[in-house]
């Protein structure tokens, strides 16, 4: 028998008997691979090795600029000839009502000592302090209300966390009501409310009560300043009215008293009967707008304390004690309010020597110089606090209030637990003497270009008790806190425009046009990915004289990034910018910098890393939040409001619709110029030059630049290709899905002929080790209702089991069955041999494991009545639904047969009539060159060969055969590999049919579909998957997600339709989703394996494949 | 209590609300005219320019755009004139201020006052005395100032030695011999004569430097103090050749111990008197204002009266500049000339100034650069 078949297999598609292709290919692959690998290493190395930024100067100089000044007494205020407290005392004595004001009012708090904290909105340390030390407080007074006009209208600016925190910690909440808007006191707001008509006051009071009630407050603290004493009587009446209203609602009225001229408007004698507490603000002896001086000197404090409490009920009085510092810069309009840690930090950095003498004789103060500007710092500490507390006890005051939370000497809280009076014993010293360097971040300098120092160190002071009972402090060494060194405030009329997140192809050019038209130089903080996409814009920015800065590659939140990640972000962007522009940049702005100023060490770390990499970290202090699109007008207004206090404006030229920014920009520029400002690049703001902050890249760095340039281009090309591929693929999938649905819907069953077609037919079965199934298969064939003659030929391809015996057993009973045996040569050869032995024109190909229904044969041959029909495809279904894998394939078959095959039938472009169940004309097979042996997919090969002349290939969905699907992934993979390899072979063999008009829809639709959807797409999807996964950490998934959704949606739509056509439950269609997860990697694997095998030219024997149901679906 | 830094956000929101009430940029400039070229201000045929001095600080020269815009938002009208000072004690020309005012679309009015720090009233002449000026001591300063004014390059009005008929400023006649008669056929007194000489001296020096963009204002207080013939406006008038504008300061009650005076008598006679001093020049209410003393008088009413009178009875008045300031006096009392000293006062002003009689935008016409400045009209 062997002699009947050619042994020569050189015709087998992809086979390479000489074995030359693979070694050559391998060598080529090896060289390319090694080269690519080395290139990749170089590229990655350039990313990780920080480029040497040649920063010609560094912010760290700032620290060198701070230097201590010897006690150079500032032009302090001379005490007035007659101290104001004496005036106050005599005035009170003169105005004294005959009846003593000691008649305590019923609602007056007679509880224990009041310990109140003033809370400042927007200061994270104020919140932290309140949260930590609430247990030591009884009341909290947060900033809340401010009168805005004389009509009783007030604005509410409250921290919504405070009522909850107060409730949780058991603190009485007393919101503050001031007449302070921004930096300005509005005396008219108070005066006109007091002078105004009663209904205006009533409205105001009701409004206030409603707000207090909503906040679950215990009352309100009033702090009205700079009020004209001419309105004293009216204000007294207003306060009485307010007190009555508040008391009726069970709320308290506390009134702040500012020593000095503001006392003139307060009628103590009357009000002491109405107000629950007076809060004497015994600090700000020298205010922030005065020349430098003490904040609360001993004599001043005690004199006022005595004057205010003299002749009053001291219990009604709460004394607000200062706990902050002022830093006066020579020539500045206003002192900077600083915290105790900041005072320490400045003293430490300026190298202030030991011996700064604290209270009580002096305010704690020191002097230093920063960049030629003289500074004078005064601060209040735990010692001044304890001395004041001591005086309070002597005067029997009702308690104290700390002004303000967040700036205090932290030792205050420990000191409060000490037994009083304080003795400077060991226990006290151990609490008060050490100056701990904590996590509190301190700020030094002015401007928003910052440098970070995370060093912490403790300092020390000595505490002693003088003979007159006062504590003394002498600072020996100052503690060090994590510090932000600021610079770049620029001149009074210098301001910088900065644009973040670009370049953007739509908005950046418009902004550049506007800047050019107005002759303005700005700074652009570029995001790497955008710069990489639009290098021409980057070049344009630089060419037009603007400065560029690094804004990271992917704009991540650096506070949650690893240090290595941060470095990678910075380096990749730096290299990219160098590659594009030939310049480095030393400017860096962290993403999301505008959201919060650094208040934790986690915020500080990225800044420190950037500093270590020699970047200048640029923050901002004018943030109109243009990204939120508040309207061009609001953007402009916000800049107007913030301009006085800032010099770096933050805008955005990317990241969404920036039309408002574009609209606002010319108006911003015009307004700034009208104001007298010069718009300067950042380098000017720090007294440097463009070339210094953006040094041209030297020749020494040429090689790394070349590498990184090539690397970025390759990276770019790959990314672009994948994106384009995704878009094209998605479009094609949608198109194909729609087309398939349309065609499948228009599928028409061939009208049954008036006379049933009952030709003689031959059934051909190739069998290899089929002993378990062959008998059942044969019995199913025999049980058919076909009326014509039937011949059944089983070709046993050298089975090693009892297949032949099983066949013979049945053949004995039914003569229609014949058995031919051959040594194992493969299925194709078995079929070819069988074909030669058949008698009838019409041959039914049937797999040995495929069971016919009784009507299958009859229905299958009906289309052959039409002479043009050369082949009929039956409808294979999965019979074994025991495993999930099998059920998945069932769905796959359902889709393939119900949709694709119907669709292809419509256009006569079925690519395969399955070897499992199909009917063909033998003459047509012979005309097409017979059954070929040169592919693994002989059925596909045969089908494609049949397309010539008038031949039609059709599908009958009613001719159903039940086949057996692989039940494990392993067997499935093997089966699919065989299909994949076979399909590849057939595609290659029939490649001339693709896009060939002679083949119509086959050439233009079904074969390209196989190429694209079954080979190319399947091969490339792992790359897309990788891209998707890689993009997850950068939040780019949002861009990929739509494609994934479209892919899956198409799958689900097709599966649902197929299930409807199949009359399967629709829920089966959802199986397509998990199926994709299993199939996609599997199919990709076998496709790549098949491609490699094809390249290697290896002979793939079909005999190695496990016998199973085969080739039911390939579309 | 130290001012908090954290309230700016809300204040901002407030300003935005205010802004929505309106008052945009001036739109009256004809497009064909280059504002920055040689131009001169055209006086309105009907009505008058409105302007203000706005809280510019101790030396009256802390001019800030935000302050001006805030004021304009408050009153609801762009200001045609912004007044500020140039005190000799500062020894500078406030170029930045004036440029900013011009860029803002307003005409700067400068009170060029020869006195020294500390700027305290009623202390008499200092190193910038009229005698020192006439002796040439300050020629260099005057010349520099004139050069800078010419360099400024836009129209401006300069009021030199304003309210010289009072007794509070050191350049007043009362400090220079006052009523001492100078022998001769015409009645002349030493104080006023010295002032006139100084005025002419300064104007001539400045003109000699080519600063022809300046219009000079002769500005008296509405009533002299002391009231006497020698101390009258006419006695101080340096002559038509030296003056482009006639100015009047018209204040109602400013201090708590003063009486409340209604507007008509404050302006009617002084206007007539000034109109007689020179029969051709335009008249400006160079400063006007009143304190808020609810127990003495109704400020809103006073403002309404003022508008009504100015609009109907002062045909030669072509500009009025409100003095928007609040200050504390040595005796701790306040003088609150702020327009928003009460909501009622502000409402009255807003309503009054909204009348089309009051021009908030400058009308300009081109003037040949070399041509000598001719007073309008």
What would your notes on this structure say?
The complex is a heterodimer of chains A (1115) and B (377). With 1115 residues, chain A is an alpha/beta fold. Helices cover 43% and strands 17% of the residues of chain A. Chain A contains 35 helices and 39 strands. In chain A, strand 10, helix 9 and strand 11 form a beta-alpha-beta unit. In chain A, helix 10 packs parallel to helix 12 and helix 20 packs parallel to helix 21. The N terminus and C terminus of chain A are likely disordered. Chain B has 377 residues and is of the alpha/beta class. Chain B has ten helices and 15 strands. In chain B, the strands form four sheets. Chain B has an eight-stranded parallel barrel, surrounded by four helices. Chain B is globular. The N terminus and C terminus of chain B are likely disordered. At the A-B interface, strand 7, helix 6, helix 20 and helix 21 of A face helix 1, helix 2 and helix 3 of B.
How would you concisely characterize the structure shown here?
The complex is a heterodimer of chains A (1115) and B (377). Chain A has 1115 residues and is an alpha/beta fold.
Strand order within the widest beta sheet of chain A: 2-3-6-9-10-11-12-18
Number of strands of chain A: 39
Order of helices and strands of chain B: HEEHEHEHHEEEHEHEHEHEEEHEE
Beta-strand percentage of chain B? Answer: 15-25%
Rg of chain B, rounded, reads 20 Å
Q: What would you report as the Rg of chain A, rounded to the nearest angstrom?
A: 45 Å
In total, how many beta strands of chain B? Answer: 15
Basic shape of chain A: elongated
Structural class of chain B: alpha/beta
Q: Helicity of chain B, in percent? A: 25-40%
Q: Stretches of chain A where pLDDT falls below 50 for ≥5 residues? A: 1-10, 56-60, 72-80, 98-109, 1101-1115
Largest sheet composition of chain A: 8 strands, parallel, barrel
Number of helices of chain B: 10
**Averaging pLDDT over every residue of chain A, what do you get?**
84
Strand order of the largest sheet of chain B: 2-3-4-5-8-9-10-11
| Distance between the ends of chain A | 35 Å
Structural class of chain A: alpha/beta
Percent of residues in beta strands of chain A: 15-25%
Oligomeric state, counting identical vs distinct chains:
heterodimer
Distance between the termini of chain B: 54 Å
Count the helices of chain A. How many? Answer: 35
């Amino acid at each position: 028998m062997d002699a009947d078949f050619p042994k020569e297999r050189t015709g087998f598609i992809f086979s390479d008997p000489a074995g030359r292709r693979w070694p050559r290919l391998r060598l080529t692959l090896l060289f390319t691979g090694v080269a690519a690998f080395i290139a990749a290493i170089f590229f990655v190395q350039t990313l990780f090795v920080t480029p040497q930024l040649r920063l010609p100067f560094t912010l760290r100089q700032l620290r060198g600029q701070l230097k201590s000044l010897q006690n150079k007494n500032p032009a302090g205020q001379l005490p007035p000839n007659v101290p104001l407290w004496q005036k106050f005392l005599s005035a009170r004595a003169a105005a004294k009502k005959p009846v003593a004001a000691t008649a305590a009012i019923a609602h007056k708090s007679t509880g224990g000592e009041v310990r109140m904290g003033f809370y400042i909105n927007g200061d994270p340390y104020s919140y932290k302090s309140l949260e930590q030390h609430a247990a030591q407080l009884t009341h909290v007074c947060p900033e809340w209300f401010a009168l805005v006009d004389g009509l009783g209208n007030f604005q509410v600016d409250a921290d919504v966390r405070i009522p909850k925190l107060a409730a949780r910690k058991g603190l009485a909440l007393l919101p503050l009501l001031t007449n302070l808007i921004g930096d300005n006191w509005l005396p008219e707001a108070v005066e006109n409310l007091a002078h105004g008509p009663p209904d205006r006051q009533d409205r105001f009071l009701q409004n206030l009560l409603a707000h207090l009630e909503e906040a679950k407050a215990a009352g309100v603290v009033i702090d009205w300043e700079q009020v004209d004493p001419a309105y004293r009587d009216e204000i007294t009446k207003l306060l009485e009215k307010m007190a009555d209203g508040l008391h009726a609602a069970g709320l308290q009225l506390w009134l702040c008293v500012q020593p000095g001229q503001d006392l003139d408007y307060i009628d103590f004698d009357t009000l002491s009967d109405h107000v629950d507490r007076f809060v004497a603000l015994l600090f700000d002896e020298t205010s922030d707008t005065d020349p430098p001086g003490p904040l609360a000197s001993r004599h001043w404090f005690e004199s006022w304390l005595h004057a205010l409490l003299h002749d009053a009920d001291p219990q009604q009085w709460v004394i607000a004690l200062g706990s902050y510092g002022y830093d006066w810069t020579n020539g500045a309009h206003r002192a900077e309010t600083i915290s105790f840690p900041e005072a320490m930090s400045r003293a430490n950095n300026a190298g202030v020597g030991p011996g700064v003498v604290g209270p009580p004789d002096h305010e704690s103060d020191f002097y230093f110089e920063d960049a030629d500007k003289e500074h004078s710092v005064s601060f209040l500490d735990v010692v001044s606090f304890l001395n004041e507390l001591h005086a309070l006890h002597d005067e029997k005051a009702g308690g104290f209030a700390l002004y303000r939370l967040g700036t205090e000497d932290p030792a205050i809280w420990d000191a409060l637990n000490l037994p009083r009076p304080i003795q400077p014993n060991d226990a006290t010293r151990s609490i008060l003497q050490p100056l701990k360097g904590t996590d509190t971040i301190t700020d030094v300098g002015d401007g928003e270009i910052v440098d970070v120092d995370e060093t912490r160190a403790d300092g020390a002071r000595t505490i002693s008790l003088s003979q007159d009972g006062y504590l003394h402090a002498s600072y020996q060494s100052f503690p060090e806190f994590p510090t932000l060194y600021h610079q770049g405030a620029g001149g009074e009329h210098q301001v910088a425009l900065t644009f973040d997140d670009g370049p953007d192809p739509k908005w950046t050019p418009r902004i550049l046009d506007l800047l050019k038209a107005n002759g303005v130089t700005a700074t652009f903080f570029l995001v790497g990915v955008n710069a990489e996409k639009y290098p021409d814009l980057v070049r344009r920015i630089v060419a037009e004289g603007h400065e560029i800065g690094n804004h990271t590659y992917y704009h991540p939140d650096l506070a949650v990034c690893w240090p290595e990640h941060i470095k990678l972000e910075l380096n990749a962007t730096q290299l990219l910018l160098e590659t594009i522009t030939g310049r480095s940049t030393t400017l860096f702005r962290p993403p999301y910098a505008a959201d919060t100023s650094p208040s934790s060490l986690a915020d500080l770390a990225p800044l420190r890393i950037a500093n270590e990499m020699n970047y200048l970290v640029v923050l901002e202090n004018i943030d109109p939040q243009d990204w939120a699109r508040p309207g061009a007008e609001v953007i402009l207004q916000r800049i107007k409001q913030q301009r006085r206090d800032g010099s770096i404006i933050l805008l955005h030229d990317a990241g969404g619709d920036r039309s408002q920014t574009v609209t606002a920009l010319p108006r911003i520029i015009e307004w700034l110029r009208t104001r007298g400002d010069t718009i300067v690049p950042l380098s000017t703001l720090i007294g440097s030059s463009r070339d210094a902050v953006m040094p041209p890249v030297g020749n020494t760095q040429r090689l790394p630049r070349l590498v990184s340039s090539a690397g970025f281009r390759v990276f770019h090309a790959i990314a672009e290709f994948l994106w384009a591929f995704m878009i094209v693929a998605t479009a094609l999938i949608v198109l194909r899905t729609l087309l398939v649905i349309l065609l499948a819907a228009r599928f028409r069953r061939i009208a049954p002929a008036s006379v049933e077609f009952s030709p003689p037919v031959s059934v051909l079965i190739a069998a290899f080790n089929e002993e378990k199934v062959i008998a059942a298969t044969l019995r199913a064939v025999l049980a058919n209702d076909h009326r014509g003659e039937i011949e059944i030929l089983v070709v046993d391809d050298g089975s090693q089991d009892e297949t032949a015996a099983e066949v013979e057993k049945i053949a004995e009973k039914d003569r229609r069955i014949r058995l031919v045996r051959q040594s194992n040569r493969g299925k194709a050869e078995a079929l070819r041999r069988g074909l030669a032995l058949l008698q009838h024109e019409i041959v039914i190909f049937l797999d040995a494991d495929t069971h016919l229904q009784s009507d299958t044969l009859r229905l299958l041959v009906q289309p052959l009545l039409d002479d043009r029909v050369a082949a009929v495809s039956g409808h294979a279904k999965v019979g074994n639904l025991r495993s999930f894998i099998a059920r998945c394939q069932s769905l796959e078959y359902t889709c393939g047969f119900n949709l694709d095959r119907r669709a292809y039938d419509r256009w006569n472009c079925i690519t395969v009539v399955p070897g499992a169940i199909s009917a063909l004309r033998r003459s047509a097979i012979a005309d097409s060159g017979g059954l070929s042996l040169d592919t693994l997919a002989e059925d596909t090969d045969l089908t494609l060969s049949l397309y010539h002349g008038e031949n039609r290939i059709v599908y009958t969905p009613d001719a159903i055969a039940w086949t057996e699907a692989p039940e494990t992934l392993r067997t499935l993979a093997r089966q699919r590999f065989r299909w994949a390899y076979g399909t590849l072979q057939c595609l290659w063999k029939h490649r001339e049919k693709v896009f060939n008009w002679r083949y119509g829809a086959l050439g233009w639709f079904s074969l390209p579909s196989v190429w694209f959807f079954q080979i190319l797409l399947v091969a490339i999807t792992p790359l897309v998957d990788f891209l998707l996964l890689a993009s997850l950490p950068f939040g780019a998934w949002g861009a990929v997600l739509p494609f994934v959704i479209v892919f899956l949606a198409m799958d689900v739509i097709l599966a649902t339709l197929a299930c409807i056509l199949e009359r399967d439950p629709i829920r089966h269609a959802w199986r397509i989703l998990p199926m994709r997860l299993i199939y996609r990697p599997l199919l990709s694997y076998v496709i790549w394996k098949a491609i490699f095998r094809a390249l290697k030219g290896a002979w793939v024997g079909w005999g190695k494949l496990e016998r199973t149901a085969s080739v039911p679906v390939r579309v | 209590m130290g001012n908090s830094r954290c309230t700016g956000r809300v204040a901002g929101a407030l300003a935005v609300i205010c802004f929505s009430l309106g008052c945009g940029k001036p739109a009256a400039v004809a497009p064909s005219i280059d504002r920055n070229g040689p131009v001169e201000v055209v006086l309105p045929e009907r009505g008058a320019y409105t302007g203000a001095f706005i809280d510019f600080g101790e030396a009256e020269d802390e001019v800030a755009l935000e302050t001006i815009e805030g004021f304009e938002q408050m009153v609801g009208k762009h200001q045609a004139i912004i007044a500020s000072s140039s005190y000799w004690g500062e020894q500078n020309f406030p170029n930045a201020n004036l440029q900013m005012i011009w860029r803002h679309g307003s005409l700067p009015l400068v009170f060029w006052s020869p006195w020294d720090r500390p700027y305290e009233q009623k202390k008499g002449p200092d190193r910038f005395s009229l005698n020192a000026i006439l002796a040439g001591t300050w020629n260099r300063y005057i010349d520099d100032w004139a050069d800078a004014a010419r360099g400024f390059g836009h129209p401006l009005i300069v009021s030199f030695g304003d309210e010289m008929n009072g007794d509070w400023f050191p350049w007043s006649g009362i400090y220079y011999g006052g009523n001492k008669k100078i022998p001769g056929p015409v009645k002349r007194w030493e104080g006023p004569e010295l002032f006139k000489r100084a005025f002419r001296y300064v104007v001539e020096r400045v003109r000699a430097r080519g600063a022809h963009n300046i219009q000079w204002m002769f500005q008296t207080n509405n009533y002299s103090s002391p009231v006497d013939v020698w101390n009258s406006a006419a006695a101080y008038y340096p002559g038509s050749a030296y003056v482009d504008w006639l100015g009047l300061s018209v204040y109602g009650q400013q201090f708590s111990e003063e009486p409340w005076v209604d507007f008509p008598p404050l302006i009617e006679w002084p206007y007539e008197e000034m109109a007689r001093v020179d029969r051709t020049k335009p008249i400006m209410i160079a400063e006007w204002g009143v304190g808020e003393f609810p127990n003495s008088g109704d400020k809103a009413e006073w403002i309404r009266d003022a508008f009504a009178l100015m609009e109907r009875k002062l045909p030669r008045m072509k500009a009025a500049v409100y003095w928007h300031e609040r200050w504390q006096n040595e005796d701790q009392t306040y003088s609150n000339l702020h327009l928003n000293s009460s909501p009622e006062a502000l409402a009255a002003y807003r309503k009054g100034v909204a009348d089309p009689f009051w021009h908030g935008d400058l009308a300009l016409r081109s003037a040949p650069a070399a041509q000598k400045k001719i007073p309008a009209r």
